[in-house]
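Bug #77: duplicate submission created two jobs. Keeping one. Sequence:
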Amino acid sequence: MTHRTAILFLLLTLVFPGPLCAVETDTADLQERFTAQIAPLLQTSCMDCHGADTQEGNVALHQLGGDLTAPASIAIWGRVLEQLETGAMPPSGEPQPTAAQRQAIVDWLQETLVRAGRGFELQAKRLLPEYGNRVSHALLFSGEIQTPAYTPARLWRISPHIYRGKRYQLQVAGGIEAEPVAYSSKSSGIRDYASQEVMDESGFLALQAALDDILTNQLRVKPGFQAIAEAKGQPSPEAMERVIAEEFLRATGRPINDDERARFLAFMTANIRQGGNESGLKITMLAIYLSTEAVYRMELGRGEPDAFGRRQLSPPEVALAIAYAFGDTPPAEVSILQQALRNDRLTKRSDIEAVVRQMIAAGAPPVRHELPAAFFARIVQSDDDRGFGWHPRVVRFFDEFFQYSKAAGTFKDSPGAPIGSRALTAAPQGFIAEIVNEDRHVFEELLTSPRFNENQEALLARLDALYQKKLSKTPESQHAGITAWYNDGLKSAKRLRQETFRAGILTHNSWLIAHSTNAENHPVHRGIWIRERLLAGNLPDLPIDVDATIPEGPDRTLRERHAVTRAQSCWKCHQSFDPLGMPFESFDDRGWVRTARYFDKGKNAYLPAPHLSEEELEKLRQKSEIVVIPVDATGGISGTGEPDIDGPVHDARELVQRLARSTRVRQSIIRHAFRFWMGRNEMLSDSQTLIAADQAYVTSGGKFSEVLVALLTSDSFLLRKDDSASTSASRPH
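Kept job's structure:
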């Protein structure tokens, strides 16, 4: 077993101890549950297609009992578990078990497969962000789960962003601050999970080397370091104590205590005596920088356990959790949290809520670094007012959720009007922060707001308002410069389009490009994104024997080429996401609105232009026969369980406007917010936390700030539990 595997096994034992310690599961109890509960449910829901008379997909369940010792049985039950968790079986149109009945089968299968030796594989999957939707959406929001919420006691490795916030480097070469660690998880969405960010041996050695380099570069920069490194002979105890206290606070986020100060002072003194001032200083600083509290966020819960075995985070732990819920700055540098610690206001739930509301009210300034060259993208990003939507973690949540910033790294081979990479990120970032700061019907606005159009009239109105605001806040002596800036904006406005079709972030160039290929649209990726992110849907893993290639064909539209997915073996999966992705054919692969495609018969290929005027068409027709073919952007929504939401849609605009009205979409966004701020997937025991966050959003008129308050004051956020005696955190109670 490798070092990393051993750590992950230990972590899984701590987080999901019951299923992994399968020897404690009574085999007789599992068999009894199978006979009394599972077999009747399988008979009702599965045997018509997988029984003695019919075995669709070559799956027969009628001869399988509760004993999973046979390898063939294990393989079949593993397939059954995935089909049940993803909701693929029973198929739509067939009688469905209730959510509780489905969960009963899932729980039995998980525990029985663990008993058969599949525990590590199953539980490792449950920890991954991409498997979060496997937890029953219906049960999470039905209200029938009353299990008290908690988060397992844990160590959470410090993220790259938090390392930047520690400011180990006072001066940064080239303007880029080093991040001595990188994320371990893949970059396809929400990723800072405590279970995934583990410091293994190679990671520790890489961190040590990076910190050593940082220390070497800072020896002549930090005054405290410089005083010790350049001291003649042994540095004074006062100088050493000062550096130890400063760097301990920087590394751990809390003041050093007397015992720690004495130990590190003795350690530094011995190191300097043996290795000299520079080496002794570096070794001591490395000891501080590599200490457990400096590498991990320790969330163990220090209070007395309640009746359910849960312990509340101690005030310093709460301060750390709240600080990193909003930004990357340690709590020692957040005045609101320092005052709360001094006044003992991080123990009672009402006091913690008041502190969270203070943090929201204080807000943060707009992002003003790496501004784009494009005039209007720049003002959208940087000239908003201070607000909680600019807190680094709030900005990061919506970026990781929508993934719009991936557009900046998508290289386009296709011809067409380009957009600067910084502008692709800046404009949506500014619009999203603006919507969050307005704090009214936030999710609906994000999905339908017309501000995502490049509309000359609307952007000129924004420029005029900003111009008047600048004039009112600056001395008259500076008005000439502001007027020159305004006139530059008027010149830039001449190149703006008059778009009105776009509605929300999913119709903005950034999201469309982020979910496209180098040369064309990608309806599959877009549809999967909507199914998983907005509809809390599940998709089975892609079978290894499936050829997922779409045939080429310059004389066929993308929809025509995707006809191959209508084959029965493909459509059983593609039917859940192709209809969600095809409506974005309303745009070309660079995200420009189009209503028609232009087919050049002479070249036997479609022209890349998203729109041609009659004059442009006439010129082209003088050289070749051009056929104008209206874009087919039809699609459909399914699986929400809401009759006014499900059904066919005409184009992307209708799709997003209908999705914005969906209860399931609202709840799915809240589930992803939960994962981001809790650093883990939800369990069924988090049901009351999610319901409270959902109700807070609805009753407040769509305030995202109330969702944050509900999450950051919940039992899931504040309470920890070592549940080694539990058997399952997911079974309904």
